[in-house]
Amino acid sequence: MLLLVSDMHLQENRPALTRAFLHFLKTEATQAKALYLLGDIFNLWVGDDAMTDFHRGVAQALKELAESGTYVFIMHGNRDFALGESFCKQAGCTLLKDPSIIAPFGQSILLMHGDLLCTQDISYQRMRRVLHNPLIKYLLLHLPLRLRLKIANKARQVSKSSTSKKASYIVDVTQQEVVRLMEKHQTTCLIHGHTHRPAVHDLEIELNNKKLPAKRYVLGDWSDQEGWKITLTEEDIQLSSFNFNNS
To answer: Which residues contact 208 (CB under 8 A, 6 or more apart)?
Structure first.
């Protein structure tokens, strides 16, 4: 069994959410062969050198899970794109590229955070390309920590204000881009997060000159009361929510 989650947005001022995530790591996740964290694990990340006791606590919990025998994989999200190898080493995790292909049971599955699919949000995609430029990223990570935090908090405020003014379809994935990437990677299954719109979508793609049915699984974000996960077995892929009070 594999487990996939995304968009926990862990932060110090939401202790109930953090407790639920740590409980998930110590219980259900230990039963999985691998755990995939598909981005936005943290609500904000300005560099591995900015880790606090809070971040180190999460890293230690992930490391304990990895040492128990569960492989742990992490993908960057839009909130924690600066998360680096230092954190992964402390957490016993492997950093995945976005997008990545896995084939655990012989079926090719495309994993993404999901923001790359939102191509109609032109201003966001432009900003993303700038921030993911290796030189820009290097320069940002070498600014004084206080300045990095100030820039990140200001960027979040601007982004939140901008997103609230955009039409719903603009900040959702673009269907044509979904199909294009699935055909490019030769897969009929895509799993991603980012949009906070959990669902299973049926679609059709063309592989080897044949029209084939395909599915897109969208993970939900975690609240203080509820989490979302995908359970992947040899027989099935299940998207489900779970209440923390009953976990």
So the answer is: none
What value, to the nearest 5°, has the Cα angle with vertex 88 and ends 173 and 135?
65
d(C-alpha 13, C-alpha 31), whole Å: 29
Q: H or E stretch including 96?
A: strand 94-96
Place of tokens 């995609």: 125
For residues 53 and 70, what is the distance between their CA atoms, to the nearest angstrom? 24
Retrieve residue 141's tokens: 């990570």
Q: Please, where are the H alpha helices in 117-144?
A: 122-131, 134-141
Express each pLDDT in 190-201 by its tens digit: 999 999 999 999
Give the H or E element holding residue 72.
strand 71-75
Residues 2 and 70: their CA atoms lie apart, in Å, by 9
The reported pTM is 0.94
Per-residue CA distances from 210 to 35, 47, 243, 246 (Å): 33, 45, 41, 45
For the stretch 139-165, pLDDT in tens is 999 999 999 988 888 877 777 767 766
Which domains, from first to last, does the chain contain?
A: 2-246 (3.60.21.10)
Are the C-beta atoms of 186 and 204 separated by less than 8 Å? no
